[in-house]
Amino acid sequence: MAGDSRRAERSVEQTLGHLRALDSASMEHPARPLTLEDLYRQQRMRMVRLAILLVDDPATAEDVVQEAFTGLYRNWSGLRDARAALGYLRTAVVNGSRSVLRRRKTAREYQPPHQADARSAESLAMLTAEHQAVVAALGKLPRRQREVLVLRYYGDLSEVEIAEATGVSRGTVKSTASRGLEALQKLIGD
């Protein structure tokens, strides 16, 4: 296990070291101070490769780098000297990549609120008017009350099974069912 870990570390170190060496060899070292144009020409691909390694998507990496250069352009006059620009740029690419990854994570974790399926005309036609009123009233209950009542009376589950399915305590199932039945009675009565 430790050997695999060291082997993986060496592999990563060699690969990234090779990329770093390639990037360093291609950099120019001008005698005059760097301009933003010089920096763009010399560092753009290196920053794109950095961003690709962080976000794992070339198009997104290019967007991140473009945003970093745009920010650098806006703040160019506020830099201590042109040599500080590279550090600013690198930090902007890393922070931009982090933002992309946070947005991805948030998007993956988002679950839209449950949308009740519309009942088919056939299924509603088969229900009596009283049953239709109950189904309509169930749709107006808060989510947890609706879940508990449906699991109990449609799913024919016990309080313990409902508690496991919904992730609440048995006591919460009992009180939620009680409040749900009261609310349902009021909705049907109206």
| Number of E-type strands | 0
SS element count, helices: 9
Rg, nearest Å: 30 Å
What's the number of domains? 2
Largest sheet: none
What's the N-to-C terminus distance?
Answer: 68 Å
* Structural class by SSE content: mainly alpha
| Percentage beta strand | under 5%
Element pattern in H and E: HHHHHHHHH
- The overall pLDDT, averaged over residues, is 80
What level of helicity do the residues show?
Answer: over 70%
What general outline do the C-alpha atoms trace?
elongated
Q: Give unreliable regions as ranges.
A: none
Domain RNA polymerase sigma factor 70 region 4 type: 132-184
Protein name: RNA polymerase sigma-70 factor (Sigma-E family)
GO biological process, one term: DNA-templated transcription initiation
InterPro entries: RNA_pol_sigma-70-like, RNA_pol_sigma-70_dom, RNA_pol_sigma-E_actinobac, RNA_pol_sigma70_r2, RNA_pol_sigma70_r4_t2, RNA_pol_sigma_r2, RNA_pol_sigma_r3/r4-like, WH-like_DNA-bd_sf
